[in-house]
Write a structure and sequence with these properties.
- The protein has a domain of 76 residues: 2-Layer Sandwich (hypothetical protein PF0899 fold).
- Helices cover 25% and strands 33% of the residues.
- Helix 1 crosses helix 2.
- 18% of the residues are buried.
Length: 114
């Protein structure tokens, strides 16, 4: 389950952003997860919960914002939103497409408790 190591990376990123000092606790962490990033949101949430329990971030909530897979057609410039990773243009059926979104994994927001 590689989601656990991804959860670990997210926690490291959050810790890097946190100001030093006692009494700071993380309320929630928002992440963008692409539909084609090969990450199971449920597994990522589970891994995050397990790891935060042991990292001084107990109670922090992981909020996952799923990003759909979209591709831009090199042929006709049409942007398709794909439900499955079948890489072709929905308009002209060309397989000559570039991925725009759907592969990302990034922390977008960290909310602290007062
Ligand atoms: Zn096209």
């Amino acid at each position: 389950m590689h989601e656990v190591s991804i959860a670990q990376e997210i926690i490291e990123i959050v810790k890097d952003y946190l100001p030093d000092g006692n009494g700071i606790s993380v309320k929630s962490v928002k992440v963008d997860v692409g539909d084609f990033s090969n990450i199971l949101p449920e597994a990522l949430t589970f891994g995050f919960e397990v790891l935060t329990d042991n990292s001084g971030m107990k109670g922090a909530e992981l909020i996952i914002n799923k990003i759909p897979l979209t591709v831009n057609c090199i042929n006709c410039n049409y942007i398709s939103t794909l439900d499955e990773p079948l890489f072709f243009c929905k308009k002209c059926k060309s397989p000559n497409v570039e991925i725009l979104t759907g592969t990302e994994l990034k922390v977008t927001e960290i909310e602290l408790n007062d």
